[in-house]
Write a structure and sequence with these properties.
By secondary structure, the chain is α/β, with parallel strands linked by helices. 26% of the residues lie in helices and 26% in strands. The protein has eight helices and 13 strands. Strands 5-4-1-6-11-8-12 form a seven-stranded mixed beta sheet. Strands 2-3 form a two-stranded antiparallel sheet. Strands 7-13 form a two-stranded antiparallel sheet. A hairpin with a 2-residue loop joins strand 9 and strand 10. It is globular. It starts with a strand and ends with a helix. The relative contact order is 0.18.
């Protein structure tokens, strides 16, 4: 039995422009690899051997980059939505392929050291259709917190951290949940969770203790470059060069000029050189 995972990688990456004007967000370089390669390798190391890439924006570039997945030691299936379907809608398109066993779903812009195997096993042990991964985020508060009793001050807490438990963009679905997702409609994970709660359907959650980062904005992308060597380089397999990418319709080399000075990451120059050689 193959253990399956779906990576949602059809977003436009609007918050990462101008990078995503040139390269689709899942292929942006982090160290020596793309975001999606890091995810695929970590999934494989956790026992997932059939991975579905749910695509939309620049789908052909992702398909040409990864092929059938054999170079990564997995089976890879590319799914393409014809119109934007949100974050849950694209999973519905794969209902026939995902009808037998629980499967993992994750956003295509997440870097984490989460043990996907432990998360999957935990989810399978629960009598719920959906398990969500959560992460505690601590945000510094810029003011001191004063405690009072009537007219008197009884304590002070200097700039405390505010704890928020967030949805981490990683889930385990059981096949029955697909019947709750409408066909051919924009439908997000937030819609799915709200609808399940309104119907009294239980949802289990799994707290992530390991490193986790959402690469949603330029500053997050910069941070990912800084932490690559510490957290993710050890999982590196051989670098898969970009010579398998179809470049027809790709932006001119002048597009790179808009990126100069935005990052200064050592990997960026290498990627730019690869693109230039392919264009010549």
């Amino acid at each position: 039995m193959k253990v399956k995972a779906v990576i949602l990688c059809g977003g436009l990456g609007s918050r990462l422009k101008p990078f995503t004007d040139i390269i689709p967000k899942p292929l942006l370089p982090i160290g020596e690899k793309s975001v999606l390669e890091i995810q695929i390798e970590h999934l494989k190391n956790n026992g997932f051997d059939h991975i579905f890439l749910a695509t939309n924006y620049k789908s052909s570039y992702i398909e040409n980059f990864f092929g059938d997945g054999s170079k990564y030691g997995i089976e890879l299936t590319i799914s393409k939505e014809e119109k934007p379907l949100g974050t849950a809608g694209p999973v519905k398109l794969l209902q026939n392929e995902l009808k037998d066993e629980p499967f993992l779903v994750m956003n295509g812009d997440i870097l984490t050291l989460l043990s996907y195997k432990n998360f999957y096993d935990f989810s399978c042990s629960k009598d719920t259709l959906l398990t969500i991964a959560t992460k505690d985020i601590y945000t510094p508060f810029q003011f001191g917190n004063i405690h009072t009793d009537g007219d008197y001050v009884i304590g002070i807490e200097e700039k405390p951290n505010i704890k928020t438990t967030i949805l981490a963009g990683i889930y385990v679905f059981k096949p029955g949940i697909l019947d709750l997702i409408p066909d051919d409609a924009m439908y997000g994970m937030d819609n799915l969770i709200k609808d399940m709660l309104s119907e009294g359907l239980p949802i289990s959650h799994y707290p992530i203790k390991e490193y986790w980062l959402d690469i949603g904005q330029v500053e997050d992308y910069n941070k990912a470059q800084q932490i690559y060597n510490e957290y993710f380089k050890s999982e590196s397999t051989n670098w898969h060069k970009l010579d398998r990418l179809g470049l027809e319709g790709w932006g001119g080399l002048g597009s790179w000029e808009s990126l100069e000075g935005l990052g200064g990451w050592e990997s960026w120059e290498g990627w730019k050189d690869k693109w230039k050689k392919l264009r010549l």
